[in-house]
Amino acid sequence: MYALVDCNNFFVSCERVFQPQLEGKAVVVLSNNDGCVVARSNESKAMGIKMGTPFFKVKHLVDSGALQVRSSNYALYGDLSSRVMSILSDTVPGIEIYSIDEAFLDLSGYPIERLAEFGRELSRIVKRNTGIPVSIGISPTKTLAKIASKLCKKYPKLQGACLMYRDEDIAKVLSTYPIEDVWGIGRKHTKR
Fold first, then answer.
1. Cα 164 from Cα 143, distance rounded (Å)
2. Hey, CA dihedral for 54, 60, 63, 66, is it positive or negative?
3. Catalytic-role residue among 102, 121, 168, 180
4. What predicted TM-score, i.e. pTM, was given to this entire model?
5. Cβ-contact 155, 173 below 8 angstroms
6. How many whole angstroms from its chain centre is CA 119?
7. What are phi and psi of 76, to 5 degrees?
C-alpha cells in the first residue's frame, strides 16, 4: 500500500501560516515576476480563477477587495516543505519526495484496517505541527493513491485521508473519474 501526502493549495497555505487573516478569503500567489497566478485558495478557485491566469486579468478583483494577492516566497515554501517532509520521514521508513508539496509513503506491513485512521492522524499531526493542511490518499498503487488524495480534497468529511483499496470501490471511482485527470495520462492518451 502507498500513501500520497499532498499539501493543500500549498503556496497559499504557507502564506496563511504567517498571515492567518487570509483564512477563508480568496487568495492567489503570483509567479516570480508577479506575472501570473501559480497558486489559488479554494475560495479563488470558486471565483473561476484558473492556474496560469495573467495577473492583469484579475487585478480588478484585487482592487475591489474581493481577492487577496501575494508575491511568491520560495524560501518560505521550501522551509515549510522541509518541515512537512521531516514529519513524514519520522513517521514511516519509506518516503519518496515527489515535489515541493507531495510525497509518497510506502506503507508495506501496515494493517489495512488501521490505514484510514493512520492517515487521518498523520494529517492532523502535519497540520498541528506546521499549519499546512494535507490530503492523504492511500491505495495499492501510486496512481490510485494520487486519485484517492484528490477525492480527499473533494470530500472534507474524509478528515484528511482517503483509503481506497477494495476492488469494488476502485472500480466505482474509476468508472466516473475523468480520464484526463489520471496521473500520467496526457492529451494524446486521453483521446485514445
1. 11
2. negative
3. 102
4. 0.90
5. no
6. 14
7. -65, -45
